[in-house]
Design brief:
binds uridine 5'-triphosphate; Spore Coat Polysaccharide Biosynthesis Protein SpsA, Chain A; alpha/beta; three-stranded antiparallel beta sheet; eight-stranded mixed beta sheet
Length: 492
């Protein structure tokens, strides 16, 4: 039997023989491409993941035992909202670690941003700021500023380096790299910006059958932001198999890593306060959270499930639990998860040991595909299939010393999820929240900002409101954007 026949039989026995529906009619190069894709795919694993994901989903919900779910224990939870005085010491410790060159950053930018509806990677998106800077540029400039602030705090002449590991995926990699090159890495040293790529999995119909994107190509999608962990072990280039993100972290002596999502315009990249807090807690992994806005907000919260930490979906807790309050009147389950994490490098190495236990989740999406019976191209108007995704927070139950830091939402979280004009988590709300923060920075430094005046402060001017002493007593009556504190004088 030919090797193609073997392959076909393997797919038949896995219940996925339909992937050969068009094979016999394809030109030879396309036959070869399809065979190569199918050979590289572990179809039995895909079936196993599907079965496990379906049963995990069935087990979710209040029936799964909300009594096992408990709020965070006090000793694992800190807050700069209720305890802002602690932030200075944490910041100092975090800056010192940055200045020692021990802090790196992992960016999760492999998502396809389907809800936003832009074909470019989300990080390239211009949320309409006066500067028209992209999300990537904001993050890069925050890193550059922080490198300077940390070096100054340590009294070091040369600046500290915070390596930036940018996780892309098949759909986002080449455009992301090209965008960085076009913008000259936004002023960062290209040697300190490391791209890597997460894996993909086939897209499935609702019954678990793999979908074909074209007669000769399987539809695939990135394997979720939890694909991060496995991606850290992949060679950075085919030419140098030994160089992986984990190897690079070790080679640079990076001990602490901050990871975050590309779509949060307020993200405090490598936040020294968070790093310092985690160092004090001696955490191996930690999460930043924001208070849930109201009891029924459909956001996952960090909580305890039995004796483990976990992200608990809104659907998993009872209405009474959702409404429960602490003696101080706050929601008991309020630690809204924003996918903003801390890891020690040894923890990132250790994930491999328990990775097989991490479940895949099902995301129901609109998936363009070719109908195997008619050969017609289908562009569905509503979700017709599934993407299988790992979630980055699914490692929490496997941590030894987990910690949570609560931060104010207005200062740190405004995600870009939806198309312009949606009214929530869209480009307009991102723009509004970022500019409102810049106004607060100026006002906190002692300036007055006129009604309706919009001033955009480059992240190179201030990372988190510091360095604005010169504006004290000034009144700003003009809108504009500035790249230095001196330029602010033109807006008085
Ligand atoms: P979301 O789950 O919100 O997905 O990603 P998305 O791709 O941005 O948007 P939709 O759901 O298609 O509309 C949250 C974060 O996780 C990253 C995204 O880039 C974003 O920073 N992510 C998501 C990955 O890095 N890889 C993935 O496979 C999925």
């Amino acid at each position: 039997m030919s090797s193609v026949e073997h392959l076909r039989q393997r797919y038949e026995s896995a219940g996925q023989g339909h992937l050969f529906a068009f094979y016999d009619t394809l030109p030879a190069p396309e036959q070869a491409a399809l065979v190569a894709q199918l050979e590289a795919l572990d179809i039995e694993r895909v079936n196993r993941i599907f079965t496990k994901a379906v049963s995990a989903e069935r087990d979710l919900g209040p029936a799964a035992g909300p009594e096992l779910i408990e709020p965070l224990p006090e000793d694992a939870a800190g807050s700069i909202i209720s305890d802002p005085a602690r932030a200075d010491a944490w910041r100092a410790a975090g800056l010192a670690a940055i200045a020692r060159g021990e802090v790196g950053v992992l960016l999760m930018a492999g998502g396809q941003g389907t809800r936003l509806g832009s074909s470019a990677p989300k990080g390239c998106y211009d949320i309409g700021l006066p500067s028209h800077k992209s999300l990537f540029q904001y993050q890069a400039e925050r890193i550059a500023r922080l490198e300077k602030v940390a070096a100054e705090a340590a009294g070091k002449g040369e600046k500290a380096v915070i390596p930036w590991y940018v996780m892309t995926s098949g759909p986002t990699r080449s455009e992301t790299e090209a965008f960085f090159r076009t913008h000259k890495f936004f002023g960062l040293d290209p040697k300190s910006v490391i791209f890597f790529e997460q894996g993909t999995l086939p897209c499935l119909a609702m019954d678990g059958k793999v979908l074909l994107e074209t007669p000769s190509r399987v539809a695939v999608a990135p394997d979720g932001n939890g694909g991060l962990y496995a991606a850290l072990r992949q060679p950075l280039s085919p030419a140098d198999k030994a160089r992986t993100v984990l190897a690079d972290l070790d080679a640079r002596g990076i001990r602490f890593v901050h990871s975050y999502c590309v779509d949060n315009c307020l993200v405090r990249v490598a936040d020294p306060v968070f790093i310092g807090y985690c160092l004090e807690k001696q955490a191996d992994c930690a999460a930043k959270v924001v208070p849930k806005a109201f009891p029924t907000e459909s956001v996952g919260v960090v909580a305890r499930r039995g004796d483990k930490f976990s992200v608990v979906e809104y659907s998993e807790i009872s209405p009474e639990q959702a409404e429960r309050r602490t003696p101080a009147g706050e929601l008991a389950f309020r630690a809204g998860n924003i996918a903003n994490h801390f890891y020690t490098t040894p923890f990132l190495h250790a994930v491999r040991g328990f990775e097989d236990e991490l479940a895949f989740h099902i995301a129901r999406k609109k998936i363009a595909h070719v109908d195997v019976s008619s050969g017609a191209q289908v562009k569905p108007a509503k979700p017709n299939g599934m993407k299988l995704e790992m979630f980055v927070f699914d490692v929490f139950p496997h941590t030894q010393r987990f910690a949570v830091l609560e931060v104010p939402r207005a200062e740190e979280f405004s995600p870009l999820k939806n198309a312009p004009g949606t009214g929530a988590d869209d480009p307009q709300t991102s723009r509004r929240d970022l500019l409102a923060q810049h106004r607060r920075f100026l006002e906190a430094a002692g300036a007055t900002v006129g009604e309706g005046v919009e001033i955009e402060l480059s992240p190179l001017v201030t990372y988190a409101g510091e360095g604005l002493e010169a504006v004290k007593g000034k009144t700003f009556s003009r809108s504009g954007m500035v790249e230095s504190v001196e330029e602010l004088d033109a807006l008085v």
